[in-house]
Amino acid sequence: MMNAIAHQFDDALRYNESMSRHTSWRVGGNADVFFTPQSRAQLLAFLTEQAADTPLTWVGLGSNLLVRDGGVRGVVISTTPALASFEVGSDGIIDVGAGLACTVLARKVVRLGFGPAEFFAGIPGTIGGALSMNAGAFGGEAWNNVESVDVANRKGELITRQRDAYDVGYRHVVAPANDEWFLGARFRFVPDAETSMSRVTALIQERREKQPLGLPSCGSVFRNPEGDYSARLIEACGLKGFHIGGAEVSPKHANFIINTGAATAENIEELILHVQSVVEREHGILLQPEVRIVGESA
Q: Could you tell me the domains of the chain?
């Protein structure tokens, strides 16, 4: 499957690692190899050791990820905590690692008196995940303030690309090359007299009131269709509280699927498909998932 992995990486590797420990849904089978790099340099060196046909799956906080019960073949690479850097440059440029939590970015930028950044407090994952799908919340989107990004390819090469190299839209990012992964980004923020930690706190409180944050979920499951909201469509179909096994459409927010305690990845995936089917039948709209589904069925 892959080249022999050099002993220099032994401390950063785990084998047959349960992915339920690394996803916010708390489900998923085992990863053949789970690699937690201790630095960007070690990560790039590790990539040079991998065979061209080794499957590579990258994860941050696992908040937008469903791992099937059969697990993940190849290597799973974690961007946290080694890539969780935050460095303040000149002229409002802030260099951020892909493994930094979006909520942490929001707090740090606001404390510096820059903005707009409060909306990042509404994104549950890391900067790497936010970049890969142009995640957003409260009217803001991750790519709005991006100047450039750092990516790595399979050869372990570090490449810097400018913002205009990417085709970016609503929950949509197309990269100029395949098999490249985000290591970090440079954001340009501006002094903002209106920004405040109280605003960040208010947005976090709004999430707590409207979303089932105390239960395992992935955040929003479906993208909003143009001119409408997935949650409204799902609720209009009477699906709040509908469950398959331990997976349930949240009674609090219809665009959340929660693990009530004994869900399997299969339960969750079946519920996603059921919701899509019902909404399409009732409203003529096929909801598109935001969540990334990886791995093999049991």
A: 7-78 (3.30.43.10), 86-197 (3.30.465.10), 212-294 (3.90.78.10)
Cis peptide preceding 116, ω within 30 of 0: yes
Average pLDDT of the residues of the chain: 93
DSSP state of 122: G
- Check if the beta carbon of residue 276 is closer than 8 Å to that of residue 290: no
What six digits make up the tokens of 40? Answer: 């960007």
Q: Which two tokens stand for residue 252?
A: 């609090």
Return the pLDDT at 3.
45
All residues at 6 or more sequence positions from 7 whose CB lies less than 8 Å from its CB, including other chains? none
Give the global pTM: 0.91
The residues pairing with 188 across neighbouring beta strands, listed in sequence order, are: 93
DSSP for 5-71, written as a single string: PPGGGGGGEEEEEEGGGSSTT----EEEEEE--SSHHHHHHHHHTS-TT--EEEESS-TTEEE-TT-
* Residues noted as catalytic: 171, 220, 290
